[in-house]
Amino acid sequence: MEQPVQLLLSSQIDLNGTGDKAVFSLPCPIKVIRVGLIIQSADTGGATIKFDKRVKAGSDTNRVSGGVSVLTLPAANEQGKFLCKSQDDSNAVELDCGNEIVVNVTAESVSANAFAVAVIEYNRIQELPANLSNALISA
Fold first, then answer.
1. How many other CB atoms are found less than 10 A from the CB of residue 67?
2. pLDDT over 70 for what percent of the chain?
3. Cα-Cα-Cα-Cα dihedral of 127, 131, 136, 139, to 10°?
4. In the chain, how long is the greatest CA-to-CA distance?
5. Span 120-125, mean pLDDT?
6. Does 134 map to a domain?
């Protein structure tokens, strides 16, 4: 049975300046099918955004840089467009509950006013919490 596509959206992120810009904490196992940016400003060229895989929420131990995907924004004015990269079954990334996806700007935009919204499209992996090593069942 085909799983419905679900979305995670960040608040607006600033592409001028490097570092972590958004964190998606996962309460269930997922299979990432697409990552992207909704571009909100006219000049965002030159920015590189890595969607890092953080294997333990809140910890950078064993963090995988670009472990989910990497996007490079084109130099042209792409305001109002959705820049994305799709995953197929051969390169799909599966994440467990308790993992995080960190949106990390590694090369900043050439513009002082460059903004976007990060998007993760995914399918939920159906599994019982009792079968997941990262899930705890409360009394």
1. 19
2. 88
3. 100
4. 55
5. 91
6. no
Beta strands in 26-125 (DSSP E): 30-39, 48-54, 64-72, 82-86, 93-95, 100-107, 115-124
Q: Classify residue 62: in a domain, yes or no.
A: yes
Closest CA to 66 of 116, 121, 104, 12: 104
Give the range of the structural domain holding residue 91, as residue numbers without chain letter: 6-126
Whole-number pLDDT of residue 1: 46
Q: How far is it, in rounded angstroms, from Cα 107 to Cα 16?
A: 9
Residue (of 89, 75, 77, 96) closest to 33 by Cα position: 89
DSSP classification of residue 55: S
pLDDT in tens, 4-55: 778 888 999 998 889 999 999 998 889 999 999 999 988 667 789 999 999 9
**Domain contains 20:** yes
In eight-state DSSP terms, residue 56 is: B
Task: Give the residue from 64, 55, 44, 62 showing the smallest Cα distance to 118.
Answer: 44
Structure tokens at 69: 């995907």
